[in-house]
């Protein structure tokens, strides 16, 4: 089993300590986001670092598994939608303005190095949101079984903060993301994958909608829809990550 290094550091954005774990010693820095309500240790507990062990051992990838605050944002159904959106925006700023530079420092990255982001379930949404909103920080993203229609979590995108965190909505608007910069990317800079098996219904619909929204904007995207045996669980996410990570970072 791949061993990780544990960190617990203060976040000014969130006003609390945030935990994360690092796997590998060198290579492309990759921010990994958990499934809805998940924790930073879920990736290790479900064998995801082991799924890309050769890349980690060879120094081609360094994996940084972040924590979530979903209980206060996406899943905080007992609080007002605006409050949920505010917390999601704070979390986005934590990932992109605090954790991202910290990752680059720990990685010993050269100047102008860009990160990648990868996520499963709602973590796929977080990863893609990072890539689309901050392409000057994130070179690409891999979304596995993503849930990209945030209306089910945050409400209507007519609220400005919801819109800012709703990729299916903001891609249709002008001036909210740098489409000129995003359009220059390779197809494999944004990889989306979902299965057609158990509990993949929402992810299948959302992933297709996300790919269509990107294509409509002229933005490159690689979409793969796997078979009816491919379910919404870590076993398949490990297989998908193994394949895509080797393609991108191998």
UniProtKB/TrEMBL annotation:
<protein>
    <submittedName>
        <fullName>Esterase family protein</fullName>
    </submittedName>
</protein>
<dbReference type="InterPro" id="IPR029058">
    <property type="entry name" value="AB_hydrolase_fold"/>
</dbReference>
<dbReference type="Pfam" id="PF00756">
    <property type="entry name" value="Esterase"/>
</dbReference>
<dbReference type="InterPro" id="IPR000801">
    <property type="entry name" value="Esterase-like"/>
</dbReference>
């Amino acid at each position: 089993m791949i061993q990780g290094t544990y960190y617990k550091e203060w976040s000014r954005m969130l006003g609390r300590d945030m935990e994360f774990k690092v796997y590998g010693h060198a290579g492309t820095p990759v921010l990994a986001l958990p499934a809805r309500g998940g924790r930073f240790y879920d990736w290790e507990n479900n064998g995801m670092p082991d799924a890309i062990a050769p890349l980690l051992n060879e120094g081609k990838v360094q994996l940084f598994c972040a924590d979530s605050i979903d209980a206060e944002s996406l899943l905080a159904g007992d609080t007002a939608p605006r409050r949920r959106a505010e917390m999601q925006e704070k979390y986005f700023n934590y990932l992109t303005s605090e954790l991202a530079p910290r990752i680059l420092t720990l990685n010993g990255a050269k100047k102008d190095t860009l990160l990648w982001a990868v996520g499963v379930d709602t973590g796929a949404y977080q990863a893609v949101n990072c890539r689309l909103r901050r392409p000057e920080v994130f070179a690409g993203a891999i979304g596995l079984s993503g849930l990209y229609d945030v209306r089910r979590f945050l409400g209507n995108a007519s609220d400005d903060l919801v819109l800012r965190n709703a990729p299916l909505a903001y891609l249709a608007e002008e001036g909210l993301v740098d489409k000129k910069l995003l359009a220059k990317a390779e197809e494999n800079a944004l990889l989306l994958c979902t299965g057609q098996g158990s509990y993949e219904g929402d992810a299948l619909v959302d992933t297709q909608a996300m790919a269509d929204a990107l294509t409509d904007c002229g933005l490159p995207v690689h979409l793969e829809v796997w078979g009816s045996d491919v379910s919404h669980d870590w076993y398949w996410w490990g297989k998908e990550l193994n394949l895509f990570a080797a393609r991108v970072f191998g």
